[in-house]
């Protein structure tokens, strides 16, 4: 591939059409780039923007993030998914304060030693945040390179990935590296779309192999499908007479780590036993229809179970690890639990 043509065509396109006004591009700093890159993993730009803006208002710099509690950070992340990202950001902020006096090191391996920072994110912090030549290879860039170079196979497969890194590194310029990397990401996000790429508008169309072969529908290859296991559980919905709902904070590690959620049980028997042990005078247990939420490695199928009692339930907070919350203002609930609580409010609490 003609490296000079590739770089020049891409940069020329970027000057005219690249995105330059995203919130993390104004007042650019390695901190802003890092937060945005982590939020953008597996998540669309439009979804990220309001989260990013709230996050930066609350944690305007690294020291503010390092000083916060992890619960505060995960609460601001609630609804964005993949919560390990929030916990890793918080831990990494602490490490940057400790090891690097609150500065981002201009060194790939030092950045990659931080929790949650892979090779591409480290490359983005270096190039976009510090102007140091470094290569990125996020999902959008992988798609563009697979198509331009005509690489068949799934980009997540190790051999394909190695080849993509080699090509990406060979094409990365030393001058205008931030614009070049941003251009690659923008081209993937706005022109070289996963389905129906807009090849007629693409600055690389004369050198793109997938286009020449009319193979954009099959390059890059889709991830080989595997059926995900299903995990089933029961979630307890319990309201006090004053209209509060009972929530527990989940353990810091694992799914929805550190967020507030409903008490969860492996079986209806376990749920009933919990109520009995807590001295809850159960009048009725109403099991609602099954709901499903898909994580990257399994489907969670859960049955909400509404507990009613002749007595006010508020006293159970002394027995269990959870607390009563105003359901309208409770923050830091994962999106599927927020939806369930909202449905609960709509049906009217007994
Ligand atoms: Fe993507 Fe089409 Fe451009 Fe090739 S020509 S890089 S397939 S948009």
Question: What would you say this structure looks like, in words?
Answer:
With 350 residues, the chain is of the alpha+beta class. Helix content is 44%, strand content 12%. The protein has 14 helices and eight strands. The protein has helices at residues 3-17, 30-40, 45-58, 62-67, 70-77, 84-100, 108-112, 119-130, 139-149, 158-171, 177-190, 209-212, 268-277, 335-347, and strands at 230-238, 245-249, 260-261, 264-265, 282-287, 291-294, 299-309, 323-325. Strands 1, 4, 5, 6 and 7 form a five-stranded mixed sheet that branches. Strands 3-2-8 form a three-stranded antiparallel sheet, with no helix packed on it. The radius of gyration is 24 Å and the shape is elongated. The model has no long low-confidence stretch (mean pLDDT 93). The structure holds iron/sulfur cluster.
Topology readout:
Blueprint: H1 3-17, H2 30-40, H3 45-58, H4 62-67, H5 70-77, H6 84-100, H7 108-112, H8 119-130, H9 139-149, H10 158-171, H11 177-190, H12 209-212, E1 230-238, E2 245-249, E3 260-261, E4 264-265, H13 268-277, E5 282-287, E6 291-294, E7 299-309, E8 323-325, H14 335-347
Parallel strand pairs: 1-7
Antiparallel strand pairs: 1-4, 2-3, 2-8, 5-7, 6-7
Bound molecules: iron/sulfur cluster.
Residues 144, 147-148, 191-192, 197-199, 202, 204-205, 208, 210-211, 216 line the site of iron/sulfur cluster (SF4).
- Radius of gyration over all CA atoms, rounded: 24 Å
Rounded to the nearest angstrom, the distance between the terminal CA atoms is: 68 Å
How many helices does DSSP assign?
14
> Please, what is the average pLDDT?
93
Oligomeric category: single chain
Structural class: alpha+beta
Mass-distribution shape: elongated
SSE succession: HHHHHHHHHHHHEEEEHEEEEH
Question: How many beta-strand elements?
Answer: 8
List unreliable stretches of 5+ residues: none
The portion of residues forming beta strands comes to 5-15%
Helical residue percent?
A: 40-55%
Largest sheet entry: 5 strands, mixed
Bound molecule kinds, no repeats = iron/sulfur cluster
